[in-house]
């Protein structure tokens, strides 16, 4: 993964925006001037009312407010800031003898209080400390945004050329109302992609309703989809709203659409053509405004050819096709996903680790991941949970992945052995060339990652790439 540090602006150079509220305006000016000398951008409000207006109208990082003011007092300013600018910090100023109100302010979320007459260095230090937290929040937001901008779309991460193309399609089609068919093996991210599409459409404030067709017996599928009236069939004791109605205004995600029985396919086609549904047992049709995103791990076109899926429905669903390749066909995504899951899961589980050992990294990069991204995520989660020494190593790997590891002492086992042994008898330079090329392919040409994988410096790698004229 690229090092985010170089791409995130140095936030310490961005001035902290400070609002000083005090009905003693000359005092407020003096406070502002002393803060401007430590790279704060200050504005002054000469009364509580003026301060309140400026809190509503602009964004502030730190608000320094006097507590005792005639019109709107400091506590009211504090409450307003906490509501309207939740990331901003408030420092309250109070005269001697009013410690009780300062304590009340602290209970209401003030960052700290300072007593008048003010000690300027104390004030500066308080503002610096209060803004440090804010800088951290900003930096994290910036990091998330830059990671997302460079490698992803609404949580769909990928750096391979295939994923770049898919993310481009997602950006273009999400805002439209087009029906989308997502095809891919289990665990390739079909539901995640469907959610990303919904999140980037004008429907995002309306429901995203998933329905897995293979999880339902045929007998209740239609009632789940379209709903039913009381007495529509034996056991229909009351009226029930179906998923189409639930999703009205939003997006319906139909997973495993290839499992839909032929009868239901006919009804589905009508719904898509007429944009109306009829609850089972009802006479009236209901207008619906639902965007459909369907997914399948089967080859629907083949099913059409074999006569097990209706051709007309296939074309209705396949207005935009998104084919998610299995992870083994885009190994360049593995390093990025590893970092992403490690970070995400560490946070969720509440366990910090140093990272992956070199051998574990190799194993994860060379495994063929039949369960795709879900399996990679689950593997990293189990490694994290089982870890005891802060470094995720092969001993934490599930049994089917661990034997594939070529040990650093040169001995090797399992599949990896056949590849390595096949090179015995070849000149060492050829072996080196072979391994560097393999590593480059695995990381999709990411030099930093390749160098780490091979345990050599980036400069050395660069030299070898030139020397052997390797593909990047
Ligand atoms: N490109 C990706 N970036 C980040 N996380 C991903 C990506 N693709 C999948 N995941 C994660 O992998 C897991 C499986 O993804 P998801 O459930 O979307 O797959 P699926 O194809 O719908 O699976 P199934 O066919 O079994 O229903 C989820 O935890 C998801 O968040």
From TrEMBL:
A family per Pfam: AAA_lid_14
Signal peptide from the UniProt entry: none
GO biological process: phosphorelay signal transduction system; regulation of DNA-templated transcription
Alphabetic keyword roster: ATP-binding, DNA-binding, Nucleotide-binding, Phosphoprotein, Transcription, Transcription regulation
Coiled coil regions, renumbered to chain: none
Domain Response regulatory: 17-131
Entry GO MF terms: ATP binding; sequence-specific DNA binding
Entry keyword rRNA-binding: no
Modified residues (4-aspartylphosphate): 66
Residue ranges constituting the Sigma-54 factor interaction domain according to the UniProt record: 156-385
SUPFAM superfamilies per the UniProt record, alphabetical: CheY-like, Homeodomain-like, P-loop containing nucleoside triphosphate hydrolases
Official protein name in the record: Transcriptional regulatory protein ZraR
Organism: Fuerstiella marisgermanici
UniProt lineage: Bacteria, Pseudomonadati, Planctomycetota, Planctomycetia, Planctomycetales
Gene coding for it: zraR_4
